[in-house]
Amino acid sequence: MRLPLALTVTATAVALALTGCASAPEPQAGAGASSDLVEVRGDFGDTPRVDFPTPLVPGETQCTELVEGSGDHLVDGQQALVGLAVYNGTTGDEIQVTGFGDEEAVPVVLGANTLTGLRTGLSCAREGSRVAVVIPPADGFGEEGNASLGIGPDDSLVVIFDVQEAFLPKTNGSPRITRDGFPAVVTAPDGRPGITVPDEEPFETTEVEVLKQGSGETVESGDRVVVHYTGVLWDGGDVFDSSWENGAPASFVVSDGADSQVIPGFSEALIGQQVGSQVGVVIPPEDGYGDAEQAGIPAGSTLFFVIDILGVV
């Protein structure tokens, strides 16, 4: 997914890459003297007009919720779509403003690869929140700064987020019983699935089972979905791909037509299912990669996926 602003330690261009649960997560940052000095005018979702005195020198990352959101606060591993405005908190210079108005919102994931201050600050945000986050150098780019972004080693950051949409961090559906001969799936507290493939011949056609039944929006052909998934080979049960291992949910179009961005069996598993569901799908070669080897998947392989449906964009 395209992220137009990278504020990671290794960033060399202006593009913010915010990539790397408790039932009622608590924010890791709160309002403070610095974040309360940030003044933002304009409606939620529209390009903000931002003023603050310089220099802002917070002792720790602070976050003030300017527009109150709803639901739970964002947590590690969760993906959201945001508008963001980034400023040098020492000089007041604008770094980048994007994702507001008619611009495409920026997908961000709270994770281990996110700048500490951004990860901490976003934990006070919810869907519908507009928040002002003020970040000291130690939680930003530290002693090296980021010359390409005009950030010195002693410069703080000011970031305005409009959290336009927040997707589930993991499935929240009710467990369902599956048929005999279907792979067994257990789920860790963070949502990661453990999969045991039976020692028998696979199904000859694509077979889908709902492992947990959600109650959210129904996925339709042509939708762009946000999912977590793990894929294993039926023969041996080896994992060949996992968004959990990649550190962030995946997003792509599922369709029963030519515009699908995934193999036919994967789309078939998701279309008609509800957000919040976890599904398992056995995919024979004709609905997978056929007779062609694909990224370490042997030709003619039957596949099994566990998929958490986290949202529809």
Roughly what percent helix? under 10%
The mean pLDDT is 90
Outline type? elongated
Whole-number radius of gyration? 22 Å
- Strand fraction equals 25-35%
DSSP helical segment count: 3
Termini separation comes to: 12 Å
In N-to-C order, the SSE pattern is EEEEEEHEEEEEEEEHEHEE
User: Low-confidence parts lasting 5 or more residues at pLDDT below 50?
Assistant: 1-22
Which structural class matches the secondary elements?
mainly beta
**Largest sheet, if any?**
7 strands, antiparallel
Total number of strands: 17
Write the topology of this structure.
Blueprint: E1 39-41, E2 49-51, E3 62-67, E4 79-88, E5 94-98, E6 106-109, H1 116-122, E7 130-135, E8 157-166, E9 174-175, E10 184-187, E11 193-196, E12 207-213, E13 224-233, E14 239-242, H2 243-246, E15 250-253, H3 264-270, E16 278-283, E17 303-312
Antiparallel strand pairs: 1-2, 3-7, 4-5, 4-6, 4-8, 7-8, 9-12, 10-11, 12-16, 13-14, 13-15, 13-17, 16-17
Q: What do these coordinates show?
A:
- With 313 residues, this protein is mainly beta.
- It is built from 3 helices and 17 strands.
- The protein has helices at residues 116-122, 243-246, 264-270, and strands at residues 39-41, 49-51, 62-67, 79-88, 94-98, 106-109, 130-135, 157-166, 174-175, 184-187, 193-196, 207-213, 224-233, 239-242, 250-253, 278-283, 303-312.
- Strands 9, 12, 13, 14, 15, 16 and 17 form a 7-stranded antiparallel beta sheet that branches. Strands 3, 4, 5, 6, 7 and 8 form a 6-stranded antiparallel beta sheet that branches. The chain has a two-stranded antiparallel ribbon with strand order 1-2.
- Mean pLDDT is 90; it is low at 1-22.
